[in-house]
Design brief:
Layout: E1 4-8, H1 12-24, E2 29-33, H2 36-48, E3 55-58, H3 74-84, E4 89-94, H4 99-107, E5 113-116, H5 121-134, E6 139-140, H6 158-168, H7 173-183, H8 190-203, H9 209-218
Parallel strand pairs: 1-2, 1-3, 3-4, 4-5, 5-6
Length: 222
Amino acid sequence: MFKKVLIAEDMDFINSGIKSQLADLGIAQIDYVQYCDEALLKLKSAKLNNQPFDLLISDLSFDEDYVEQNIQSGEELIKAVRKEFPSLKIAVFSIEDKEYTVQTLFNEHKINAYVWKSREGLRELKKAIQQIFNTESNYISPQVAGSMLKSKAIEIVEYDIFLIECLSKGYLQEEISAILKEKSWSPTSVSSIEKRLKFLREHFNATNPTHLVAITKDLGLI
């Protein structure tokens, strides 16, 4: 079983519940933090001291308070952690159920488990931790597993979200092309942008760009 686990969660009562489940698994060292910046620093410090963590358990939402943070969400934290620690096991414990978020966490940030916070969430988290320790397979809660079905998990990437956000701001395709060139993203041609937006409209059954923006807002993509 994992020997050293870090919990990134800003609610004390949830921290207590997670620690209780981890203790039942016989995990020797359990640390927790309430801020994303602190989580990343703690992981780095442990590595420098040759006492690295085996597992990170993180929420996605962190309430803002008087402490200024560079990393303000669990997804940003996971992205930064995965860059620094490519082999660290990461489990998400969150009430978030948006398809794009779940897909991005697994496909781009390579998390190992996604457990949906629910009445049985803590017990399910325990099950997920056992699975990702004993096997190489990922764990995903049944409530959000549909997000990863092949019929739904099309390649909606950051580029697509950027195009739709530009539409929501009223940019023309020529203007979007210029912005993409400034950001060194590709493809940048107006024809490529037009083709991708057409694909997105067809996938989301949108009748026009305005309808596409409305649908993706409802889905929580932008």
